[in-house]
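Loading example: each entry is read as two labelled lines plus one structure line.
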Amino acid sequence: MTQWIADLMPHLMLAPILLPMLTAALMLFLREERQRLKLAMNLLSTLLGLGICAYLMRWTSSPASMAVYIPGNWPAPFGIALALDRLTALMLVVTYIVALAALVFSAARWHRAGVHFHSLFQLQLMGLSGAFLTADLFNLFVFFEIMLAASYGLLLHGSGRTRIQAGMHYIAINLAASSLFLIGVSMLYGITGTLNMADLARAIPQVHEADRGLLHAAAGILGTAFLIKAAAWPLNFWLVPGYSAATAPVGALFALMTKVGVYVILRLWTLMFSTEAGLSALFGSSWLILGGMVAMAYGAIGMLGSQRLTHMAGFAAIVSSGTLLAATGFGQNLLTAGLLYYLPSSTMAISALFLIADVVDRWRVDEGSGEPYEDEEAPFLNAELLPTEGFNLDEEEEVLIGRAFPAAAVFVGLSFMGCTLLISGLPPLSGFVGKFAMLSALLNPLGLGTSSGMQAGWTGWAMVALLIVTGLLALVALTRAGIRHFWANPEQSAPSLKVAEGLPIAALLLCCVTMTVQADDIMHFTQRAANALHSPDVYVRAVMGTRPVPAPAQKKAQEAAGPEAAARAAAQAEDAPPVAGISSPSADIAGAASPGRGAAEIETPAQLQERP
Amino acid sequence: MEIILALAIGVLTGSGVWLLLRPRTYQVIMGLALLSYAVNLFIFSMGRQGLAINKAPVLVNGVPQDLAHYADPMPQALVLTAIVIGFAMTALFLVVLLASRGSSGTDHVDGVHSRTEQEML
């Protein structure tokens, strides 16, 4: 069985994209009444996807570190390439875990609130997985648009005036961001002549001096598009209204979307502006640090100032991505490892908070608010939190209500406490471990005991202070909300909580607990992922060195020419001259003279055509 | 030719951004459309050898196969994708705009009636 899966390997990395696409397409054939079947298909597909992603993650950590797949069988800079490394695998696993939780939660009620929820959900997954897997800038744009188009539909799911308003703002800002994305991509193509990320990394040190300013402008414009997605200050005012207007499972899924922006910045910035990028080394790092740090402060103050739990979750997402962006900007190996540990734990905690907020809101909802909450669970309390008139809470009734799910209030309260610990970064859960790893890396840039004399600069100290202060503010805000919702009114009845709603919240928190228990292994994994990010020539060599599979006719011709010729061809394919690394001065900008491309076996017309 | 293209991009972007910042949804969608035209033209001008004039991106027998004799086909492929995606997104935005108009009864982007008559002009 394992051997069979291992044989599938280079092709298996297509599955996180193809599986959701196929499922979504199949579900479009089904009529809207067949919700149960769609739900079953969706669940099955997401579960299968999670299994595959977990296998891919194991694969990247054991035999090899990277896999490159060229779907069109063209060598790297010309065709589309997909690359799987540890960072990608980590993001895929987090995506599928959060998606599965959101889906199970939606099965309780929300998936019936509008049409095509399940198809849109799968398309969203496809866009997310594609954005994580692609090794090509324009493909990244296409997957971004798939992801965004699905997210527009999902945000409007459930309808209602607030959602339409929030949806309109969300679409407008994202369309503007897409324009910036296109401008940046086309400028980069105009300057370097390539859209392949690995080839781009190779081309940037060789860019002509006169074009250097233009290159930086292009990178800045492209980066702005991603910073809008990643919610860096001051590009994040759209986030809180949008995310809090969405239905709870969609909000939980959206907690991932800011992380896509962070992922892309982490990936592109370490590839394009690594320390080996010559004059452009670490371009924009101060902007990342500054934007991230202000976003942290803004998010923490926002958390303190918000009343609604969904708003609080939205601001927590801003704090989390601000932390990640600022930590990325330092460009330090150990810090990156810490942030890669912090990323999954904070994402899962914020998703869980969105889900809990829905349960709590429904528990506390007043009758007149006009929210499209579904019918059968009538709210027990009115706006003043007093028992609704005509709703008799005498002893018999109380027993009747309490019998439904007596542990519900305890469960919701405890999971809210877990979320508080995770988001504010208090021990003993993984939020603390992640923050501690980042603090330690900031104060000892080269590792404990070996960094004597190395001082964190003022940005480092500011980051240390912000990490601690934002944690404190988040703690204050969440504790206050917890007191208000769980303690302030001792007479309230138990919340109505279905198993399908409790399960995903518990599962997300359990994942965080597992991350805490397994912190050693996971930190090793993220450390190796960070090492790979900060030495981009591994990535570049893997992508640029991938040879196309010879066509059957060609193979036959080689075999007919005699065994020696076939062996020689095979050997040639195996040790094709190594592709010039980014530090090699011989590769020219367009790369036409680089040996890697000279060794390509088939010269297609398109290849000739693209050569300047 | 460069100056004409540059002016066109500049005027389209300028009017697009101005309209995007207006309070009425109709103006916003017009602004987004103009902005996407500007971006499409911009992509078009971003070939490897700059703007190619009087050159087709199709290979012809007997003509040397390099960018000195052909337009760069890459931006044309990019612009095609960008046009299609931009068109789809504008259509989607239009639907949301109409839904918003229907649910709130006003053309204002925030779904509230404007405070002054002047604001909606």
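Chain A is about 70% helix and 0% strand.
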